[in-house]
Amino acid sequence: MTENIRAGAVPLSSILLQMITGYWVTQSLYVAAKLGIADLVADAPKPIEELAAKTGAKAPLLKRVLRTIASIGVFTETEPGIFGITPLAALLRSGTPDSMRPQAIMHGEEQYRAWADVLHNVQTGETAFEKEFGTSYFGYLAKHPEADRVFNEAQAGYTKQVAHAVVDAYDFSPFKTVIDIGAGYGPLLSAILRSQPEARGILFDQPHVAEAAGKRLAEAGVGDRCGTVGGDFFVEVPADGDVYILSLLLHDWDDQRSIEILRNCRRAMPAHGKLLIVELVLPEGEEPFFGKWLDLHMLVLLGAQERTADEFKTLFAASGFALERVLPTASGLSIVEARPI
């Protein structure tokens, strides 16, 4: 896009208008995901009247949504008023290994509403989600089981998409015991254990999440080598792991809370242990990077942030670790490796 702007290939007003109206796409995809349209047309194209009847929608209005997102490759109108699947739309199916339906729903509901208060957030420092909902994001999830389920499904789906890139980029063979802190349903830990048949794992998360994760670990074929532990990483974490993995965890917390988590890992870790942080490490300068947008999302949602390598180094210095290296992966995520000191 930068090249087009510089070359004048696209009018600047058109480029800015597309940016301004980006929320139209978010909410249109949310409608299709929430109604389960991709599941209904997965086997064959369906007429709009049938789709409307099965979803409780108004046929003329649903048609307008589907014809619009079909224009960007999400679904296809095979004949007038008949809609079918496309590779992009297939990502909105339920229960598939690469499903992004939970992400589309999550970003279209409470998280979307929170962005309405981003200006207030920037001007006052009050987290936008808390202003909108009167509680913290995780406090909200604790009281709304369906939103919590969608969040954990979305996190698992994203992590599953990037797990193989992490496994390909790092040698996990030296580790006998792998402890995943804040692991959710355990897609990354499962990928690591499948790549290392002799290793054992411990999945650590909130009690209700750890309990639900047991079934997922069994389905992944690693349940016999992986235990689940419920707890609070602000209090303590399981001890004596050879490697502690914090994947997409620290970006949920400000520096003070992140240091608390890291200090608990340091107390639990043997001298030979390793710490691996899997996050979107922010580059310096103006280059486009998804992590810069996620950094704003963390601000709006949690009052938290993505970090640069130097900012991770500062966190480590305050919590008993030393930065060793930052390994990029094919997914855009990086593995930030540290050792206890």
UniProtKB/TrEMBL annotation:
Q: Where is the signal peptide?
A: none
Where's the O-methyltransferase C-terminal domain?
115-321
CDD domains membership = AdoMet_MTases
**Keyword annotations from UniProtKB, A to Z:** Methyltransferase, S-adenosyl-L-methionine, Transferase
Q: Where is the O-methyltransferase dimerisation domain?
A: 18-92
The UniProt GO MF terms for this protein read: O-methyltransferase activity; protein dimerization activity
Q: What is one GO biological process annotated to this record? A: methylation
Highest taxon in the source lineage: Bacteria
What residues sit in the active site?
251
Q: What is this protein called?
A: O-methyltransferase family protein
Q: Taxonomic classification, please?
A: Bacteria, Pseudomonadati, Pseudomonadota, Gammaproteobacteria, Lysobacterales
